[in-house]
Write a structure and sequence with these properties.
Length: 338
Amino acid sequence: MIIILRPNVSPTQLQRVLDRVQQLGYSPQVSQDQSRRIVTVFSANGAPQLEMLAAIDGVEQVVPVQKPFKLVGRELQPADTVVSVGSVRIGGPALAVMAGPCAVENLESLRRIAARVKRAGAVMLRGGAFKPRTSPYSFQGLGFDGLRMLRQVGDEVGLPVVTEVMDVRQIDLVARHADMIQIGARNMQNFDLLREAGQLAKPVLLKRGMSATVRDLLMSAEYILMAGNPNVVLCERGVRSFEDSTRNMLDLSAVPNVKSQSHLPIVVDPSHATGRADLVPAMARAAIAAGADGLLIEVHDCPELALSDGAQALVPDRFDSLMADLRRLAPAVGKECA
Ligand code: PEP
Ligand code: MN
């Protein structure tokens, strides 16, 4: 339930509203829209008694919110959220392209790749230090050393960095080194991790689980916002399907679907969605045409030697030409591209 207050509500009137809500057994949360103060009240089964609060002076409207996601929904906040990562804005007119290797492998290769993606126009550097691998025998990432390299190279080239956290035990360490925390597909419903991420003062990139519905994704984002962190960017990265010529099935309808329901920004990861470098550029362009706020793209300068996900990595020259395509495409969908 949302209680919208009049712009000129007095402190006494606001207090009366809060007291009444508490007397009815609920915990009110007060937030500020562009022009008005809003009191949000969470109740599992609707709360008809709260509708009576419309009678209090200073209350403009009491709006029941039927959707299970309240904080991420557009009912409470119609305007788009713009998430800041350093000087990068995600969700505004400028496309945010985050690029880099699947995993941080060593300092030198990360430096080479970072310099190329920066020159091409990427605004953030990605790279996994803690890697969620299907096989326990595969390269698991460099861990703490990888985090340090990512931080160092991000600072050297002047790009904010995003990297995955897999476990609540690593979250403080990752948050100290990264500008944005990534929660991967396999952890989208790790609710303890979501709650912890909600207590960070760092923005979160939340990837869609491979068998998660759009609604599940929004509910997971709701956990993070509810714990106090409003800076969440969603990421569509493909879902499992019967099709076996691609790694996953990219669900581009998730972009306008999310946009119609939520104010949060959404980016698309065509690399994990397709698993194939030859398909990445077309899907990246399609994602921008569908209204995505940015992209997450794996780039490697020697994919055949990559320690993970080489088959889907773009070589830097191919990434250059994709960025050139995006610069031509962006204005057609009302966006800008660096
Ligand atoms: C990644 O982006 O590094 C990754 C592992 O992706 P996902 O969680 O989408 O599989
Ligand atoms: Mn990868």
